[in-house]
Every structure is written in C-alpha cells, then in structure tokens.
Specification:
By secondary structure, this protein is mostly helical. It contains 6 helices and no strands.
Length: about 160
C-alpha cells in the first residue's frame, strides 16, 4: 500500500464504513432507550450529538474512498473538507459545553477532548498531506478512525449504562 494512492485501501474503507454504520446504529438505540434521562442531564444531549460527528465523518470518508476512478487530489480535497467540518463542529460543541459548565469533573472534559480532537483533526491532516505531498498520506486516517470508534464505544456505554447509575 502506498500512502498517496487508493490502491489496497479498499478493505480498510469497507471495514470502517461498516463499523461506523454499526456503531451509529448502536448510538441511535442508546438514545432511544434513555432519551428522557439524556435530555434531563445538562450537556448529555450535546455529548450524544458530538459522538455521531466522528462516526459520520468516518463513514463519509470511507465511502468516498471507495468511489471508483477518483483521483487522489479530489479525494484529498474531500477528506480535508469532511474532516474540517467534523473538527469545527466537534470543537464548537466542546467549547459550548465548557462555557455552559456541563462538566461535573475535569476528567469528563479531558476524556472528550482527548478522544474527539484526535479523531477528527488527523483527517484534515490526511487531506492536506495528500494534497501537498507531505509524509503520512492516508495513514493519518488509521488513528483517526480508531479513535472515532473508541469514542463512540465509550459514549455508547455512558448513554446506555452510566446515566442510569
């Protein structure tokens, strides 16, 4: 596999698209089961929404990576745009939560920052590195997608189990 070519990345994108869609479905179930409780706790609805952003980004980027015959520069622009939107929306959501004082503990804030920021920003870096020919290329997507899945699983646990304690 080459960091600046889509050859050989098909299986990675197929697996990530499936995982992102599956985890998004799990989150919808978690939201529907505990919706009243989620809406009752300040900031939890924002956290739930923030969880969908990296998953949606992973799903969209993975599907775009499967488009046949697409040039790398076009894909680089798509990655940078999707990642940029995801990063901006996630950052704004976190800033809003800080300003609204939705965090009971600093560890809650740090968990969200250290999971969501590294899940979105490397996608922007991937797009820019491909477009500009810098090192890394598509390999920036690997940790971003893995952190997207980890964050979704953590937040799904919180939305399904922890809020009922």
């Amino acid at each position: 596999m080459h960091a600046f070519a889509l050859d050989g990345w098909d299986n990675f994108f197929v697996a990530c698209a499936g995982a992102a869609a599956g985890l998004a479905g799990l989150l919808f179930v978690a939201l529907s089961i505990n919706l009243a409780k989620i809406l009752e706790i300040p900031g939890l609805a924002g956290r739930a929404g923030e969880t969908f952003i990296p998953l949606g980004m992973t799903l969209i980027v993975s599907l775009l990576g499967l488009v046949p015959g697409q040039g790398m520069r076009v894909f680089a622009a798509e990655i940078a745009a999707v990642g940029g939107v995801a990063w901006i929306v996630t950052t704004r959501t976190e800033i809003h939560a800080v300003r609204a004082r939705h965090y009971l503990k600093i560890s809650h804030l740090l968990t969200r920052i250290f999971v969501n920021q590294p899940a979105t920003f490397p996608v922007v870096v991937a797009g820019l590195s491909i477009a500009l020919g810098f090192p890394g290329g598509l390999y920036w997507l690997v940790p971003a997608f893995l952190l997207s899945f980890a964050g979704a699983m953590i937040n799904a646990w919180v939305l399904l189990v922890e809020i009922l304690r």
